[in-house]
Specification:
The protein is mostly helical. It is built from three helices and no strands. One of its GO terms (molecular function) is P-type calcium transporter activity.
């Protein structure tokens, strides 16, 4: 009975399997975030995204550096939030 209550540091087969599933889910989540980042960046820089008033957000040659930078920051924020959802916080 004393052997059952001791923690010898070894992982049980269930823990090993659950760690594998968690790793797989994390990889899928990061892959989805990467795809979303790519799609949003392509849509933004090709002029397919619009403001709420219907105007195009990015026009090559006419959009200022600050506006382009802020659009890129918005895209990175969305992708980062998708990545952070996959991590388990205590």
């Amino acid at each position: 009975m004393a052997n059952l209550s001791e923690d010898n540091g070894e992982e049980t087969p269930l823990q090993v399997r659950l760690n594998g599933v968690a790793t797989f889910i994390g990889m899928v989540g990061l892959s989805v975030a990467g795809v979303v980042l790519g799609v949003l960046a392509i849509r933004y820089f090709t002029g397919h995204t619009k403001n709420p008033d219907g105007t195009v957000q990015f026009r090559a040659g006419t959009t200022g550096l600050k506006q382009g930078f802020m659009g890129a920051i918005r895209i990175l924020t969305i992708a980062l939030l998708l990545c952070l959802r996959d991590f388990h916080w205590p």
